[in-house]
Amino acid sequence: MESTRRDVTAELSGLPYRTTISARGITAIADEPLDHGGQDAGLRPHELLVSALAGCTAITLRMYADRKQWDVGSIGVHAALDRTQEGRAIESRIHLEVSFSKELPADQRERLLQIAGACPVHRTLESPITLTRSLKP
Question: Which residue from 59, 33, 60 is spatially nearest to 46, judged by alpha carbons?
């Protein structure tokens, strides 16, 4: 069994919701929009979640197209998250729409759509996920 680990740190200090996210020496900002009390200085947490899926999908498609030597041009991935909540029960639906700047034969388009579902983040989200919590001593 292969195991991989990705570590990310989030720190909120100062402005109400502006949070600095760090991984491998790279930083990003998460925030809430003005109408939710934030400064709108970064993506909302759920936007970060679906951006990981959209980014991974685009990268996976590029790797596959390059390996097949298919000239697909630019790759676009639009990810939309719809959440419905009733009490503590939450239902989430994510839809991906993939586009290419070049015209492609139908068989290549269909194969690329299949490959979109094989990106590592997609497979992670479709698999069982266990969340744990602890307090740092």
Answer: 33
